[in-house]
Amino acid sequence: MPFQGDQPDFDGFVTVLDTKVAGNASLLYSTYLGGDGFDLAEGIAIERSGLAYVTGYTQSIVFPTRNQLLGDQPSGDAYATVLDTRKAGDASLTFSTYLGGNGDDAGNMIRVSSGLAYVTGTTESTDIPTRNQFQGELQGVVDAFLTVLDTRKTEDVSIVYSTYPGVTTLTLAISSRSTDPASPISRELQIPLTSRRATNSRATSLVVTHS
Ligand SMILES: [Ca+2]
Ligand SMILES: [Ca+2]
């Protein structure tokens, strides 16, 4: 059973297929994702547990939300949505929030590590929520944004980090302490900020480390 059926105007969708199985049995989960306006799903990341982290663009005033950080903002907005594809119907929506501010905002890419969702995209807003920011203000007309959300928490506490990075590629160095302190688990996520529009980017890189 999908989380949603068809919604007005364009919608995104999330479909899970078991490619080892033929026919209808291969369709494990499939849902529309959107609201009353124009919606796009643009980026997805999967946790092995079956959680699908989705970001995109919405012009809907009523986009599905759960434990939201933000409600609808002016103009188009980005969103971050987590679906538990092992569950059916409304129970599969575990987290969903608008992201953005007073201008046009779009989510392009999402990555997940240690339960934190890293969302990047483009913004024309001068007032996106920022926290521990590297850069606090919109640079130029269109800028990039990076927002880190702890989707296991609710409302304001879910935002861990948010900034206008003003860079073309984000290098996220993710470090987690393992039980053996001599061999910490670490890896890098390279996140190109692929804007469909020109960004006011500077040739610098931003390293975010959490442990
Ligand atoms: Ca729609
Ligand atoms: Ca907006």
Distance between the termini: 38 Å
The ordered H/E elements are EEEEEEEEEEEEE
Q: What percentage of residues falls in helices of 4 or more residues?
A: under 10%
Largest sheet: spatial strand order: 3-4-5-6
Describe it.
- It is a single chain.
- This protein is mainly beta.
- The chain has one domain (12-168).
- The protein contains no helices and 13 strands.
- The chain has strands at residues 12-17, 27-33, 39-46, 51-58, 77-84, 93-99, 105-113, 116-123, 143-150, 159-163, 169-176, 185-192, 207-210.
- A 4-stranded antiparallel beta sheet has the order 3-4-5-6, with no helix packed on it. A 4-stranded antiparallel beta sheet has the order 7-8-9-10, with no helix packed on it.
- The model is unreliable at 173-181 and 193-211 (pLDDT under 50).
- Bound molecules: calcium ion (2 copies).
- One calcium ion (CA) binds next to loops.
Give a brief description.
The protein is mostly beta strands and 211 residues long. It has strands spanning 12-17, 27-33, 39-46, 51-58, 77-84, 93-99, 105-113, 116-123, 143-150, 159-163, 169-176, 185-192, 207-210. It has one domain.
Protein traits:
211 residues, four-stranded antiparallel sheet, 13 strands, binds calcium ion
Question: In terms of topology, how is this protein built?
Answer:
Blueprint: E1 12-17, E2 27-33, E3 39-46, E4 51-58, E5 77-84, E6 93-99, E7 105-113, E8 116-123, E9 143-150, E10 159-163, E11 169-176, E12 185-192, E13 207-210
Parallel strand pairs: 11-13
Antiparallel strand pairs: 1-2, 3-4, 4-5, 5-6, 7-8, 8-9, 9-10, 11-12
Bound molecules: calcium ion (CA) (2 copies).
The site of one calcium ion has 11 residues, from loops.
